[in-house]
Automatic annotation (TrEMBL):
Keywords: Membrane, Transmembrane, Transmembrane helix. Its main location: membrane. GO terms for biological process: osteoclast fusion. This is T-cell leukemia translocation-altered gene protein homolog isoform X2. It comes from Salvelinus namaycush. GO terms for cellular component: membrane. It is found in: Membrane. The chain crosses the membrane at residues 37-59. The keyword Cell membrane does not apply. Belongs to the TCTA family.
């Protein structure tokens, strides 16, 4: 009994996904302004993500070293071994 429910649920998900894809492809092939704007924005997003990826590969170690503190404080400014000589607030 439960197996038929799982199969029905899975088939509805697959049918919904296939219908979404078919509508998406129909809209993608249409030459209207809405699709053109979407294509431009989607291209901008993909190019931006690729640029961020390559920039991180080139400058990632430099950025990481800027935020990594050397010394007794430990990584990222942890608690030092000795307390400062100033009193509390």
């Amino acid at each position: 009994m439960e197996e038929s429910w799982d199969f029905e649920f899975l088939s509805r998900i697959v049918d919904g996904f296939v219908s979404f894809l078919s509508e998406f492809v129909d809209d993608w092939l249409a030459n209207d302004m809405r699709v053109s704007i979407f294509k431009i924005l989607f291209s901008w997003l993909v190019v931006s993500l690729i640029a961020i990826h390559f920039a991180w590969r080139v400058y990632g170690n430099t950025v990481n070293d800027m935020y990594y503190r050397q010394g007794t404080g430990g990584q990222n400014g942890g608690t030092p071994d000795t307390a400062p000589h100033r009193s509390g607030w």
